[in-house]
TrEMBL record:
Phylogenetic lineage: Archaea, Methanobacteriati, Methanobacteriota, Stenosarchaea group, Halobacteria
Main location: cytoplasm
Active site: 164 (proton acceptor)
Subcellular location: Cytoplasm
Species in which this protein is naturally found: Halovivax asiaticus JCM 14624
Name recorded for this polypeptide: Mevalonate kinase
Pathway: Isoprenoid biosynthesis; isopentenyl diphosphate biosynthesis via mevalonate pathway; isopentenyl diphosphate from (R)-mevalonate: step 1/3
Function noted in UniProt: Catalyzes the phosphorylation of (R)-mevalonate (MVA) to (R)-mevalonate 5-phosphate (MVAP). Functions in the mevalonate (MVA) pathway leading to isopentenyl diphosphate (IPP), a key precursor for the biosynthesis of isoprenoid compounds such as archaeal membrane lipids.
Length: 328
């Protein structure tokens, strides 16, 4: 068995706008997806993930490159659930020149699905890394990030940025603007994550923003303003000015809300954090439902979120310096 792990991430700034060429600053966090692969004698892909439960279903998917998945739940559910793993293996077949490679894939993840913490990118980065190594090919971090990006791009129907996948592959805090991806220095930040137990559909949310942006010039201006916040945020990061970072995060959340990607439970967690004295709070990732990130060096935000109806989990996030990790 060849195993790799990769971290999830939060966005300090810039999700959604990054899809249209604005800069974004995601930071990898110490919550990981671990993917083990075992090459098979045939071209079948068999995926097992204990963490994958949607609407109470646990899905085990045994499909082949030519046949139908062998499952007992609605196929659309499986398509939604397994799209990223399928496409990651398609990338592996292409980059290794082994179109008929088959694998048994086992996924374990500490990252909630569809919650804005980049579970898809972490699973894809770890899967591509483990499966290529299992076939005797070692990709550089840049190649790995590129293949993982191509995977997200295909699954999200041409609407994805390099931010999540690059951040997960390299770890640390990164700045992504189009194809320009680089590591940046970030101070230790007092990050608190609130999770409403829900999820958002990244592809659909990205498509919604695209539509607004095409329809209204002020929506396009809103996307461009998020870019301005990110640039200002980079200065605050470089200065270690956590209070200013918080103010900019608040503003960023407001603009994401205007673009229609927040929601009642995300807003209520954001307001609970602010009222508890957080320096700033915003949704992270695609939105709809899932997680917020707040800045608070005191325990107040954690306490407030813990008692907030509708907030299912609260934790402090440590920055993950290491990206993909080769386990064995
Ligand atoms: N533990 C897992 N096992 C299998 N697939 C997973 C796992 N975690 C995430 N995924 C894949 O990632 C998708 C969620 O990605 P996405 O909607 O981009 O949200 P996010 O990246 O914010 O978690 C899932 O539908 C599934 O395809
Ligand atoms: C909305 C977006 O900017 C981030 C999505 O993050 P997540 O998959 O929700 O963790 C999309 C992208 O950058 O590909
Ligand atoms: Mg994702």
């Amino acid at each position: 068995m060849t195993r790799s792990s990769a971290p999830g991430k939060i966005y300090l700034f810039g999700e959604h706008a990054v899809v249209y060429g604005e800069p974004a600053v995601p930071c990898a966090i110490e919550r990981r997806a671990r993917v083990g692969v075992e090459p098979r004698d045939d071209a079948t892909l068999r995926v097992h993930s204990d963490d994958l439960s949607l609407d109470g279903f646990t899905v085990e998917y045994a499909g082949s490159t030519d046949g139908k998945p062998d499952i007992d739940v609605a196929e659309s559910l499986v398509d939604a659930a397994m799209g990223y793993v399928d496409e990651a293996i398609a990338q592996v077949r292409e980059v290794t020149g082994e179109p008929d490679a088959g694998f048994d894939v086992t996924i374990e993840s500490d990252i909630p699905l569809g919650a804005g913490l980049g579970s898809s990118a972490a699973v894809v980065v770890a899967a591509v890394d483990a499966a290529t190594r299992a076939l005797g090919v070692e990709l550089s971090t840049a190649e790995l990030a590129e293949r993982a990006y191509q995977t997200e791009l295909a699954v999200q129907e041409g609407q994805a940025s390099r931010a999540d996948t690059f951040c997960s592959a390299t770890g640390g805090a990164v700045r992504v603007e189009g194809s320009d991806c680089r590591a940046i220095d970030a101070p230790d930040l007092p990050l608190v994550i609130g999770f409403d137990g829900g999820a958002g559909d990244t592809g659909a949310l990205v498509a919604g923003v695209r539509q607004l942006r095409d329809e209204y010039s002020f929506a396009a201006d809103t996307v461009a303003s998020i870019g301005d916040i990110v640039r200002q945020g980079e200065t605050a990061l470089a200065d270690g000015d956590v209070a200013e970072l918080g103010r900019l995060m608040d503003f960023n959340h407001g603009l994401l809300s205007a673009l229609g990607v927040s929601g009642r439970s995300l807003d209520s967690m954001v307001w609970a954090a602010r009222e508890a004295g957080a320096l700033g709070a915003k949704l992270t990732g695609a939105g709809g439902g899932g997680c917020i990130v707040a800045l608070d060096p005191t325990p107040e935000t954690e306490t407030a979120l813990r008692y907030l109806p509708g907030c299912e989990d609260v934790f402090r996030a440590e920055l993950a310096d290491e990206g993909v990790r080769r386990l064995e």
